[in-house]
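Predict structure. Chain length: 174.
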Amino acid sequence: MTFKEEQFRKIVDEQQQRVWNICRHYARSEADIQDLQQEVMINIWRNLDSFRGEAALSTWIYRIAVNTSLTYIMKENRRSEFNLSLNNQNIEHLMHEDSTSQKLLQEQKYETLNDAINRLTVIDKLLITLSVEKVSTREMAEIIGITEPNVRTKLHRIREELRSMTKGEHYESI
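Prediction complete.
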């Protein structure tokens, strides 16, 4: 086995779930998610020799996954259909409920938040996706290609926009 093959196997083992998490935000069906994930992995393999270590490996992989996903959206002409599909596990830190007896209210808030997120622009959804994945603002800046202060500003504005769209509902740590 060559060094490249060993390195790629390690990436697949360590980063496959992260890649899957990104892909599921850009593709609608399970089959499309799998196809997109495979396309990301192919792009990682093709570009592995060009990784110079200037950024963290995870940042480099995020960037490939995001760029591949954005290309996928354009190819499939799905820009207007791009939906962020959050699940309860991933957004546990997004919403704060003091009372578990208000489960119905929490589900309504979740649906309202999910609908609001899906009305955001592609870049804003991407930033929220990375935030949900708990990616640092430094890494977000490297992935998207903007400055870290710009990422923080955009996240602040996105949060305000989401609060406005959800009629002032308060969501912790979006």
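Summary: The longest helix spans residues 3-26.
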